[in-house]
Design brief:
- This protein is an alpha/beta fold and 272 residues long.
- It has one domain: Aldolase class I (TIM Barrel, Alpha-Beta Barrel), CATH 3.20.20.70.
- It contains 9 helices and 14 strands.
- The strands form 4 sheets. Strands 1-2-5-6-9-10-11-12 form an 8-stranded parallel beta barrel, surrounded by 7 helices. The protein has a two-stranded antiparallel sheet with strand order 3-4.
- Helix 7 packs parallel to helix 8.
- The two termini are 17 Å apart.
- The mean pLDDT is 96.
Length: 272
């Protein structure tokens, strides 16, 4: 198996401090959270940013502020900073794409429309083609976010069109209300139907985070954890930090003999 890459999704776009008092929102808080997560074993920081009022933002100045703070905090051991191009539900595609002009090493690429709780997260084929163009222009590596089984078919359609080229790193985001559940049968189906030249990871939402992470560790996939996806360490017990969630995956991986990738190794796997 490849070494295990751990991604920390430190903030997200939906949560508030009222729901999660330890949620990092300012650049300074995100820098501290990223440093702790990296020291715990994360190689990738999945980054959403907020404005001065704590609202989700896709503005370049907010990304720049958080990137600078994270790089300064992690100087000498800078993680892969993976931008979100999903933003918040309802954000226009032009705004979602804009941060790619900062030329991040990696960013998320959503592969289809889903119900997202009571909202609708829209990703048309036109949106996806525009995303692909921007990724190519800015030499950013996409991570393909798959919330539904049909999103794999969307990926294959875009591959057939020549819009996307191998290799493909796919992230299965399972357990979102309105999309595919986080049952292990869902994960097995998705892994079995990946296109050739693919690597994969899984982000379980809420109660699905830990069981899916454990299965991914032993199946040869990679793992995303963090407060964006799950604010509890165990049932009814709030997580203390992103780092605490990362540390648990490192312990599990060590127990089952799956080495954890350092940042240089993660770059070699994901950014080749």
């Amino acid at each position: 198996m490849e070494k295990l890459i751990i991604t920390a999704a430190i903030t997200g776009a939906e949560l508030t401090k009222a729901q999660c008092p330890v949620l990092p929102m300012t650049p300074e808080e995100q820098a501290k959270a990223a440093k702790e997560a990296v020291e715990a074993g994360a190689a990738v920081i999945h980054l959403h940013v907020r404005d001065e009022q704590g609202r989700p933002s896709q503005k370049l100045e907010h990304f720049k502020a958080s990137i600078e703070a994270i790089k300064n905090a992690c100087k000498g051991n800078e993680p892969i900073i993976q931008f979100s191009t999903g933003g918040a539900v309802g954000e226009a595609i032009a705004n979602r794409v804009a941060p790619l002009t900062l030329k991040p090493e990696m960013a998320s690429f959503n592969l289809g429309t889903i119900n997202f709780g009571e909202d609708i997260f829209v990703n048309t084929f036109s949106d996806m083609r525009a995303l692909s163009k921007s990724f190519r222009e800015n030499k950013t590596v996409p991570e393909f976010e798959i919330y539904e089984a049909g999103h794999l078919d969307n990926l294959k359609k875009l591959i057939k069109e020549g819009v996307l080229q191998a290799p493909f790193h796919c992230q299965f985001v399972l357990g979102v209300s309105g999309a595919l559940s986080g049952e292990i049968t869902s994960l097995n189906f998705l892994v079995q139907n990946l296109p050739p030249q693919s690597t994969w990871g899984v982000a379980g939402i809420g109660r699905y985070e830990l069981p899916l992470a454990v299965h991914s560790v032993v199946m040869g996939g990679h793992v995303r954890v963090g407060l964006e996806d799950n604010i509890f360490y165990s049932k009814g017990v709030p997580a203390k930090s992103n780092a605490q969630l990362v540390e648990r995956i490192v312990r599990i991986a060590n127990e089952v003999g799956r080495p954890v990738a350092n940042i240089a190794e993660a770059r070699k796997i994901l950014l080749h």
